[in-house]
Amino acid sequence: MAYLATLTLDRGRRAGLLATAGVAAGLSVHAIVAAFGLGVLISQFPLLYQALRWTGVAYLLYLAWKLWTAPAERVAVQEDPRQHGWRAFVASLMLTLANPKAILFFLALLPTVVDLATMNALTFVEISLSMALIMPVVMFSYVFLAARARQLFTTPSAVRRLNRGSGVAMASAAVVVATR
To answer: Rounded distance, CA 12 to CA 80, Å?
Structure first.
């Protein structure tokens, strides 16, 4: 959620909404993987888990560096709809897909909701639709709140503080992922 809020503050509501779609798509992939038992492979093969984990760490550190070194320019509160296109979607999708903890979360959660051995197509569709409706609503609320707060970060010094604070948050998330 912090990633979506930070992205929205930096790039605007459109980028935040596209990023939300990317996160939701990535989480949906994780749910499908867990539902069909492929997530068990990841839990059984530590090397695969470690590869995903370190890929996620590297990407978070890359994001942290980009934020820390980003130029502190005055931000236009009005968004340019041509800017950022689907890059926010793709970046958020990749970040989510490289997060092995999301797969493990679904591996832990799904069996408490439904017996995977007896799950049929209707149950899978019901769970998928529920997630597809609930997750974006929660994420959209963060995006819309951040879009409203964006007006507070229009001066170069405020942008620099926001970028560096976001960079520290991303680096901290990388440390958490690396150490757990």
So the answer is: 9
d(CA 107, CA 112): 9
Binning the chain into helix, strand and coil, the percentages to the nearest 5 are 80, 0, 20
In sequence order, the 6+-apart residues with CB closer than 8 A to the CB of 32 are 128
Report the alpha-carbon distance of residue 100 to residue 118 in Å, rounded. Answer: 25
How far apart are alpha carbons 137 and 53 in whole angstroms? Answer: 27
Give, in order, the Cα–Cα distances in Å from 175 to each of 69, 98, 105, 146. Answer: 19, 15, 19, 25
Question: Looking up tokens 């980009």, which residue turns up?
Answer: 66
pTM of the predicted structure, to 2 decimals = 0.63
* Rounded (5°) CA angle 39-42-43: 90
Q: Alpha-carbon distance 160 to 151, whole Å?
A: 15
* Of 14, 11, 101, 113, residue with least CA distance to 53: 101
110-162 pLDDT, tens digit per residue, is 666 666 667 777 877 787 778 778 888 888 888 888 888 777 777 788 878 87
Closest by alpha carbon to 95, among 61, 60, 146, 132? 60
Closest by Cα among 116, 93, 96 to 34: 116
- Band the pLDDT of 78: cuts 50, 70, 90: low
